């Protein structure tokens, strides 16, 4: 049941108008909380009115506003793309069209088509996923690899931690293989930031690395985003790695 609580004086304003839900029969407390949060979330309302499929769209929009990731004509890979908010933002920013698609997205969930975006329904951790993405890029390299992937949590913190670290590692490995020199890698990370070893590897391959928390990322959420920019190109970094092994 929806109950609109008015602010002082009984005047409705956007700020005052808060929707509270009573727990309905059959609805758990956590799903009631989730629904209440959705109903009161200005980003959810904005996503709806601006035609984005997810409130997550604003995270990459805000990251791009600060970090200047996208330029017209760039090619972008979106890992964990469903329902498609990030791909929509990227497609608009780079000017991707159905005739000349510049964005390739992958998710194991089914997605409705997005104009200008080639979508693969596939688990990115499967061995043949990178090849499928290379093929979908039509032999071109990418300028941005962005990953909003996260496994559903198991509740067992060490397991969840290892699983997310693994996901970020394979996304980073893929980015290093597919990016053009100067390219950027963006990935969702969780509390504690990026693992030391991975960060070290990224610092070798990119001119700058940083962690950002866009305003639309809920403050109570442990998520943040790693942004690595200025990819140095596969060859010099590989040579540097060979040197360090010597
Ligand atoms: C937070 S959502 C992405 C939201 C998206 N950025 C948007 O704006 O609509 C995370 C997505 O990652 C996907 N995902 C998680 N692990 C994956 C994997 N191994 N392979 C492919 N997709 C994965 C999930 O299915 C989920 O759709």
TrEMBL record:
Main location: cytoplasm
EC numbers: 2.1.1.166
Entry keyword annotation includes Transferase: yes
Binding site for S-adenosyl-L-methionine: 84, 86, 107, 123, 148
Any one GO cellular component localisation term in the record: cytoplasm
The keyword Transport is annotated on this UniProt entry: no
Catalytic center residues: 188 (proton acceptor)
Family annotation (InterPro entries): RNA_methyltr_RlmE (IPR050082), RNA_MeTrfase_FtsJ_dom (IPR002877), rRNA-MeTfrase_E (IPR015507), SAM-dependent_MTases_sf (IPR029063)
Single GO MF descriptor: rRNA (uridine-2'-O-)-methyltransferase activity
Annotated Pfam families: FtsJ
Domain Ribosomal RNA methyltransferase FtsJ: 52-231
Catalytic activity line of the entry: uridine(2552) in 23S rRNA + S-adenosyl-L-methionine = 2'-O-methyluridine(2552) in 23S rRNA + S-adenosyl-L-homocysteine + H(+)
Entries under SUPFAM superfamilies matching the protein: S-adenosyl-L-methionine-dependent methyltransferases (SSF53335)
Keywords, ordered alphabetically: Cytoplasm, Methyltransferase, rRNA processing, S-adenosyl-L-methionine, Transferase
Compartment annotation: Cytoplasm
Similarity annotation: Belongs to the class I-like SAM-binding methyltransferase superfamily. RNA methyltransferase RlmE family.
Job description of the protein: Specifically methylates the uridine in position 2552 of 23S rRNA at the 2'-O position of the ribose in the fully assembled 50S ribosomal subunit.
Protein name according to UniProt: Ribosomal RNA large subunit methyltransferase E
